[in-house]
Design goal:
The structure is a homodimer of 412-residue chains. With 412 residues, chain A is of the alpha/beta class. Chain A has 14 helices and 16 strands. Helix content of chain A is 42%, strand content 21%. The longest helix of chain A is centred in the first third of the chain and has 17 residues. The relative contact order of chain A is 0.13.
């Protein structure tokens, strides 16, 4: 099938899906969850082929770990589908309602986006997560995963489509692009009038390619060079606890901290506490930090803008709140930034001045997450400022339209 | 000045403007309005140079009319600035507020977009309108107008910047690109990390170029192939009145109707009423229409997708509500679509099924407008589905961020 045909099928499916009731969509989600559990053997067999080929092609063990499915992982993917099913339907909510001066009744109602395309890399759970979030939000989805998991993805696609059809919905609500060449990704990026929203999910290279080349609307996700700033008025025990969590709890994710900034007034007391809290983490410090923590590596300029996604932390002593803010403005990817302080004025200045999706006062940056924010699930974390910012749940992948009702009004 | 320097100035200005109070911004707007009225002679002299050059270059009288300023037009631009001043400040409004399960307090607050760029064509009022809307919304703006009005725009820029500075704000909140070569437009479209939002304002060619080439986030505006559908259950007097208004009141604008669809059950009775209501308008009909209205021109396939912006209307008789919806789905630019009917079910089906920014029941499409919708003013009408849809006022050119306040919470 060509992408043009796939696009037409998706547009067509999106029309009936947009009008489906919450109940109809929920039945489909329940059937998908059930079918995933019922077809574990088929999924594992397809996944085993992907893994065998990955080993043949010399992929790293870390990569192979990411694309591997197990019975337990499939059960957890199926359980996540039921969680999405149990979320409230975002479609149809009245966002604004007013009567205009001329008696016209104006309502702004949330409606599905239409057709959403997702370009992603290796993890096969993204195939199911993205499909069910789009389905619940009333949009047809075109999935373009990576070649490393194409067999697993095809199995998951087939199972989901059969389940959707058995629920009485159009199976073209979920379509996977089987040709994983670069050409199909390029073509998707240019399908204006067919794709209403394109979301890249994956590494920095993929996201940059999509953002720079797409002619269809895109939401940029992902990059997180997050900072924790320990102010002169910080509770230092709390600060050590927060930087430990922000750096160490799961260093591979985008909301993990990459740089610690410490006000000079508390550096001498705090840095040893930080080092004790960060055992197992490599520290790369500015000159002052190296003086106060002898033996650690000297950071170079590139460290301030590196998203390590690893047990490495850059550490800098700053002269003032203002220096901290200026450092962050210079290096931030506008994801999540935290201040630890007992001084409410310093916190307000930090949070008002810094341009990021989420600003934290006395809490870990690790909370920037759809579930933590109470959105139920997320399809990614937006680092752009248009449409959606921060965790994107069901509402964030919807659009809206105006319903205007009159009795023959014309414009004067 | 290079665009890179201009971009740095804009980012810098955007930081202080984002923190400016409503009062500080309002003083600047008042001074801009006052200065426009005070400097009419300077503006008219610059505009006269633009007009003389336009004549020399053989521009059409219609084009020259669009770029011409008069004392009255300047007074009206200055008055519009005061109207923007009197609108509520969109910045800082709390959009959501909740306490999470772990006691974290989460607030979603509206914040300025940052740096907005506008690429536009001939009308010099856009220079002032765009600048003051961005300023009120707390964003710095980079204006890239057309070469036909560069002298007028430079005069307006100088007057606005002096006024902004005299109000104590950074004049780099408003900057005009003086080099009107294609190269500067291209360069603006690629300024990632500097420009947060790019809005093209002008003809279809300009908008397509920007949408297809920009690497920065764009809001697509403008194209309006709007339909009025007269249902079997329509009040035909009301319908004639609505199509007259939708087509004739101001045919050059995007919310004017371009195609009339008529249910076959009322075609014989309605089409003569429509013809009588549309005196002065060329009709191009389908075969059935031509039979019922002898003497009118036969429409060809291209008529259904043409945005005439003129006293021309395509007319088609359809077999059913469903045919009308399918015709609109095929040809719509997703701007504004109207149904005239006394049948509430037909109206609901039309409005639910059609994918457009604004759906009308028993009212003219001409109401899709920022002032009519009660937004106070507009910077354009979005025809895309991301971020903003339909008229974009002050709120629609803002972003938001999350403020999360804790007492040392870390993620478990």
């Amino acid at each position: 099938m060509t992408l043009t045909e796939m696009g037409m099928n998706a547009r067509n499916a999106s029309k009936s899906l947009a009008l489906a009731t919450a109940e109809e969509k929920n039945i489909a989600l329940e059937k998908i969850s059930h079918a995933l559990n019922e077809n574990v053997a088929e999924i594992l067999a397809a996944n085993a082929e992907d893994i065998a080929l990955a080993r043949e092609n010399g992929l790293s063990e870390a990569m192979i770990e990411r694309l591997t499915l197990t019975e337990k992982r499939i059960a957890s993917i199926a359980a996540a589908v039921l969680k999405v099913k149990n979320l409230p339907d975002p479609v149809g909510e009245i966002l604004e309602s007013r009567e205009l001066y001329n008696g016209l009744k104006l309502e702004k109602r949330r409606v599905p986006m239409g057709v959403i395309a997702i370009i992603y890399e290796s993890r096969p759970n993204v195939t199911v997560d993205s499909a069910v979030l789009c389905l619940k939000a009333g949009s047809a989805v075109i999935l373009r995963g990576g070649k490393e998991t194409i067999r697993s993805n095809r199995a998951l696609e087939g199972i989901m489509r059969t389940a959707i059809e058995s629920a009485g919905l159009n199976p073209d609500c979920v379509q996977l692009v089987h040709d994983t060449s670069r050409e199909t990704a390029r073509e998707l990026m240019g399908m204006r009038g067919v794709i209403d929203l394109l979301i890249p999910r994956g590494g920095a290279g993929l996201i940059r390619t999509v953002v720079e080349n797409a002619k269809v609307p895109v939401i940029e996700t992902g990059a997180g060079n997050c900072h924790v700033y320990v102010d002169a008025a910080a509770d230092l025990t709390m600060a050590a606890n927060i930087i430990k969590n922000a750096k160490m709890q799961r260093p591979s994710v985008c909301n993990a901290a990459e740089t610690l900034l410490v006000h000079k007034a508390v550096a001498k007391e705090f840095l040893p506490l930080a080092r004790a809290a960060l055992i197992g983490c490599e520290l790369r410090g500015c000159e002052k930090t190296c003086t106060l923590l002898p033996g650690i590596k000297l950071a170079d300029e590139s460290d301030w803008s590196t998203e390590y996604n690893d047990y490495i932390l850059a550490v800098r002593v700053v002269d003032s709140l203002d220096s901290a803010i200026r450092h962050i403005e210079k290096h931030s990817t506008r994801h999540s930034e935290a201040i630890v302080t007992q001084d409410a004025h310093a916190a307000a200045e930090f949070m008002n001045r810094i341009d990021a999706a989420a600003l934290y006062h006395n809490a870990s940056t690790r909370f920037t997450d759809g579930e933590e924010f109470g959105l139920g699930a997320e399809i990614g974390i937006s680092t752009q400022k248009m449409h959606a910012r921060g965790p994107m749940g069901l509402k964030e992948i919807c659009s809206f339209k105006y319903f205007v009702t009159g009795e023959g009004q014309v414009r004067g």
